[in-house]
Amino acid sequence: MDSRVSELFGGCCRPGGGPAVGGTLKARGAGSSSGCGGPKGKKKNGRNRGGKANNPPYLPPEAEDGNIEYKLKLVNPSQYRFEHLVTQMKWRLQEGRGEAVYQIGVEDNGLLVGLAEEEMRASLKTLHRMAEKVGADITVLREREVDYDSDMPRKITEVLVRKVPDNQQFLDLRVAVLGNVDSGKSTLLGVLTQGELDNGRGRARLNLFRHLHEIQSGRTSSISFEILGFNSKGEVVNYSDSRTAEEICESSSKMITFIDLAGHHKYLHTTIFGLTSYCPDCALLLVSANTGIAGTTREHLGLALALKVPFFVVVSKIDLCAKTTVERTVRQLERVLKQPGCHKVPMLVTSEDDAVTAAQQFAQSPNVTPIFTLSSVSGESLDLLKVFLNILPPLTNSKEQEELMQQLTEFQVDEIYTVPEVGTVVGGTLSSGICREGDQLVVGPTDDGCFLELRVCSIQRNRSACRVLRAGQAATLALGDFDRALLRKGMVMVSPEMNPTICSVFEAEIVLLFHATTFRRGFQVTVHVGNVRQTAVVEKIHAKVTFKHVPALRKRQDPNLKHNILGFPSLHLLNK
Predict the structure, then answer these.
(1) What angle is formed at CA 364 by the lines to CA 358 and CA 366, rounded to 5 degrees?
(2) For site-directed labelling of 235, which of 46, 50, 467, 532 has its Cα 20 to 30 A away?
(3) Where is the composition biased (Basic residues) (predicted)?
(4) 3-state SS string over 316-369?
(5) Residue among 92, 97, 52, 45 nearest 71 (CA)
């Protein structure tokens, strides 16, 4: 591990920049993504066992914000102290939007002291009492020994505390699935959600396809949604032990909603719509081990970077390749991720401990990109991905969520249905505010630029009834006898207090990622803004810094002009 990676991962380094203590497990801290800047521990007059140095390992100092808490020990606290600890746990759960991580045996300054077996048992018992008090569940993620300056074995225990907020049915995380055609996206989702391995000929993906031509060609052309649940103990809940989606929702405390996107180039506009409209928390970029980075993989990677969607990488089909081929594909990925355009720090996950660390670092640092290598046929390393998804916390903090909920209601309409005995139903994402049953909203714009009044009759999330919808959540809304012919994808349902207006000319900043020809005035484009897809014409191009007129943009230019032309030029766009 080079110094840049070690600094980013906040490893348990020796003071003075020495090598990390222990292997992969002990070389990475779970407290922060910052560098090893914790204070040095005081030297003690202890024996140096096994010829090891007498310098203490440590994590970065504990942060006041965030969902990670350090505790040296929790042995027989007084009633006053216990109530204070419970209040502290509620704060950490709120910061993590229902999830918190406790490091037992660690001082507030990050020093890894460790506890003896008896003290650790007593501390975990107290932690369990605290969790019961707030209605949460605890799961031990991992244990590690600390042999600094002690003759007795001492341990540090990392514990996950999970509590579904009172105003939610379950914790929710949306993951968009990207990758080239035939890389195994739908097959992997079928294995995860159905609980059965693939037979090597695509049997696992059949339940995910929505159209006959998809079954016949084996290629996804539309957007589909699949769910994977985890209960409070971190156990997988899927269709292998639940017959319906309603049962999965009822048995799960955390839900992963996979957004299966198309990989073929001719369906690229559908993939872009899925990334911009459904607001995924992160993306899973799938790469086939036998083909490497090919086809639309680079384009999908560029889209994730341009839209600032955090992503992790899964290398599939390792059962078809020799070990050297898999290693070559991983090296190719690492080279691409480290390029100036990406600035990512790849992290290869090879053990359950790596998966725990990767989930925490991925949530704390936008630069860390975990890489998994697995097989949907043999099931090799599939459990590591499940551990990662189970521990992965929400990527937006509670403050951002509260700010969105304080705004006026805005619901993006992505799908429109007609359900017998229910009426018109729309599906989409609530981008801001709160929506309740019975709310009066306006929907539009119509062809003449107007907004029409309507009433929300009922709400469902993952096919389960829901009375209140909050910002960032996806759901379907029943609109009763509202005329479906007046609706179309790309509309918004907003609070009447917003006084929505429409525009036909606007200015945008762009970065030219992929383009075969010259991008100039008069060029016709399709603009994706959230759930809106609209054709437009480029009226003017000018540089962002100098505001001088730029005649055209090209993907490749003279190096001396690259800074001026490929920076962030501004466009004047006219709706067509």
Answers:
(1) 90
(2) 467
(3) 40-50
(4) ECHHHCCHHHHHHHHHHHHHHHCCCCCCCEEEECCCHHHHHHHHHHHHHCCCEE
(5) 92
- Rounded CA-CA distance 65/297 in Å is 36
* pTM of the predicted protein model: 0.79
d(CA 65, CA 87): 14
H or E stretch including 248? Answer: helix 245-251
Write phi, then psi, for 171 (nearest 5 degrees).
-75, 140
Rg (CA), the chain: 26
Question: How far is residue 333 CA from its own chain's centroid?
Answer: 20
Which residue type does 474 have? A
Cis amide linkage into residue 77, ω under 30° from 0: no
Q: Taking the C-alpha atoms of 88, 89, 94 and 95 in order, what is their torsion angle to the nearest 10 degrees?
A: 70
Q: What number of residues does the chain have?
A: 576
31: left (phi over 0), alpha (psi -120 to 50) or beta: alpha
In sequence order, the 6+-apart residues with CB closer than 8 A to the CB of 245 are 227, 462, 463, 464
Is residue 419 classed as helix, strand or coil in its secondary structure? strand
- Closest-CA residue to 109 (of 54, 161, 37): 37
Cβ pair 479, 442 in contact under 8 A = no
Q: CA–CA separation, 453 vs 437, rounded Å?
A: 15
- Please name which of 542, 417, 535 lies closest in space to residue 476, comparing C-alpha atoms: 417
Residue type, 16: G
Q: How many helices (H) and strands (E) does the chain have?
A: 14, 28
Contact between 36 and 6 under an 8 Å Cβ cutoff? The reply is yes
Single out the residue of 366, 373, 302, 364 nearest to residue 339, CA to CA.
Answer: 302
3-class SS at 300? helix
Cα–Cα distance measured from residue 65 to residue 59, given in angstroms and rounded to the nearest whole number: 16
Whose tokens are 């509260």? That residue is 402
Q: How buried is 307 (Cβ within 10 angstroms: 0-12 exposed, 13-18 middle, 19+ buried)?
A: middle
CA distances for 116 relative to 75, 112, 140, 240, 476, angstroms: 12, 13, 17, 41, 52
